[in-house]
């Protein structure tokens, strides 16, 4: 008996070199909801549920999705639009060309039908379907005249928020040749920004809490190299504040900044001026003078916030990065402090052209923790190397916290290699025939097994344009057709289906007021003919 155990063999017939294979329709079912309106469409045949707590906990997956596709692969058409047509959560969407809001806005304004647990629309006493229209918000960094106002100062609630705001400003307004965060000038600038923003937040009037006031304070921070005793107006403001409260947060920061000698302080101010140069544009200062975004309400009511940015010029993309950073932190804090850890309405942040948006500080930590708060991020890239360029070593952590990866096509070598490796190897059969020619001919047949990538790099590179690869953590990969948006019940409300459905966001932002017949109004007559 002992000898038999010693000589026993372990065979894995048919999977000697790998067990990789494509998933089938039965393997995706546990990840989908029976109610189709509670799903996120990914391919023509696969979706994942929006439910955070499915019936069987082992099939619970976070809603963070990594979408990779080269230019023209259909990232917006095959992923973003199907997600918006579901109308099952609040959305924060980056819109690189500014066309997505026009194409989908009418559907969102009409809203989502109220549905029961089975997905059937709920009707009122009059028999009509009850709709829940979305609140539509727009931040437009291409055309400021078509944008609502966004003021980062409106979301500062504590000294911690001041530090976060300074961090995001520094991270997204640095030049290409600027050194890492350990640079002396970086730290000195940070001290000055922190001191000035803290002063504005604590001591300023409501209409002064904005970037215009910050620029005014910087402009008044004159330094004279030859006169170390010279005091500018800002020095006098902080001296007055120090007399009232020597341990004031703003005073402590400013005191550290003033340790710099006159010549050094002048260099720091020059760096600050260069960094905040975009704010010299009057239009930018104007849209950031007060706030209309109501970011803290996105998890309370159905909202669609469109962040319109240029896909050719990144000058103002730091504003969007600033908003996204504040949004994640604000919603997490609100979920913890007010709702016991979970927002009433799930918030999906769909980051199209994520690599061009700007850097969100500590995003690798945020994406790992937002799941439990009913927040998720969909990261859309042209290649995985873009993420590594922006987030360096943290890129792998970000990818690792996306339970779902959707590849729509591309030819970037690093991406092709990583996808091929993750798909794994399958075991294939190999037959070799041989022929020996001599006085007596002989033939041979050899059979063996080999391992082959389920899909090699060159096969992925020439993948049919209508196909995609879907990978969900814990499931076999799926090789499927891309989602056909024309088959969605809400497709007819998009501008893709009918140009008449184009949504004019500028009319919503600056509507012309029309009084109702029963309203009392004051009529003022002005004779323009007498005007000179």
Automatic annotation (TrEMBL):
Lineage: superkingdom: Bacteria
GO cellular component terms listed in the entry, alphabetical order: plasma membrane
Alphabetically ordered keywords of this record: Cell membrane, Membrane, Transmembrane, Transmembrane helix
Pfam families named among the record's database cross-references: T4SS-DNA_transf
Record flagged with keyword Transmembrane helix: yes
Compartments, record wording: Cell membrane
Membrane topology (UniProt): Multi-pass membrane protein
Family, as annotated: Belongs to the VirD4/TraG family.
Protein's UniProt name: Type IV secretory system conjugative DNA transfer family protein
Organism of derivation: Blautia obeum
């Amino acid at each position: 008996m002992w000898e038999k155990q010693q000589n026993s063999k372990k065979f894995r017939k048919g999977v000697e070199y790998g067990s990789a294979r494509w998933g089938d329709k039965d393997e995706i079912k546990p990840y989908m909801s029976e109610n189709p309106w509670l799903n996120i469409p990914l391919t023509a045949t696969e979706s994942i549920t929006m439910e955070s707590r499915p019936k069987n906990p082992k099939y619970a997956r976070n809603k963070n999705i990594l979408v990779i596709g080269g230019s023209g692969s259909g990232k917006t058409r095959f992923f973003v639009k199907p997600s918006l047509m579901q109308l099952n959560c609040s959305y924060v969407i980056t819109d690189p060309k500014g066309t997505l809001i026009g194409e989908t806005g009418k559907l969102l304004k009409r809203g989502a039908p109220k549905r029961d647990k089975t997905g059937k629309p709920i009707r009122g006493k009059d028999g009509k379907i009850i709709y829940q229209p979305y609140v539509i918000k727009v931040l437009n960094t291409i055309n400021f005249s078509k944008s609502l106002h966004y003021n980062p100062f409106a979301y500062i609630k504590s000294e911690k928020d001041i530090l976060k705001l300074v961090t995001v400003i520094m991270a997204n307004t640095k030049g290409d040749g600027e050194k890492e965060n350990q640079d002396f000038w970086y730290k000195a600038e940070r001290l000055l920004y922190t001191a000035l923003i803290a002063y504005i937040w604590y001591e300023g009037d409501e209409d002064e809490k904005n970037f215009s006031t910050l620029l005014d304070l910087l402009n008044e921070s004159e330094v004279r190299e030859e006169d170390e005793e010279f005091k500018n107006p800002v020095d006098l403001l902080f001296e007055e504040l120090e007399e009232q409260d020597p341990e004031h947060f703003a005073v402590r920061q400013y005191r550290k900044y003033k340790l710099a000698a006159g010549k050094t302080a002048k260099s720091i101010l020059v760096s600050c001026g260069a960094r905040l140069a975009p704010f010299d544009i009057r239009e930018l200062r104007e849209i950031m003078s007060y706030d209309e975004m109501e970011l803290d309400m996105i998890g309370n009511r159905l909202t669609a916030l469109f962040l319109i940015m240029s896909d050719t010029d990144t000058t103002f993309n730091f504003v969007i990065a600033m908003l996204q950073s504040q949004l994640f932190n604000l919603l997490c804090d609100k979920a913890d402090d007010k709702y016991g850890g979970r927002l009433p309405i799930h918030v999906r942040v769909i980051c199209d052209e994520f690599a061009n948006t700007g850097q969100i500080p500590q995003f690798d930590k945020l994406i790992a923790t937002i799941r439990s708060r009913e927040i998720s991020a969909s990261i859309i890239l042209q290649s995985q190397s873009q993420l590594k360029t922006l987030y360096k070593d943290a890129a792998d952590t970000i990818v690792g916290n996306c339970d779902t990866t959707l590849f729509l096509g591309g030819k970037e070598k690093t991406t092709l290699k990583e996808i091929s490796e993750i798909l794994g190897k399958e075991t294939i059969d190999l037959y070799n025939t041989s022929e020996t020619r001599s006085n007596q001919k002989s033939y041979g047949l050899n059979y063996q097994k080999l391992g082959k990538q389920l899909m090699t790099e060159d096969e992925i590179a020439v993948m049919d344009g209508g196909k995609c690869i879907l990978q969900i953590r814990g499931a076999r990969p799926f090789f499927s057709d891309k989602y056909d948006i024309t088959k969605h019940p809400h497709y007819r409300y998009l501008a893709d289906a009918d140009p008449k459905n184009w949504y004019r966001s500028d009319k919503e932002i600056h509507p012309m007021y029309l009084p109702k017949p029963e309203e009392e109004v004051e009529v003022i007559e002005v004779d323009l003919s007498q005007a000179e």
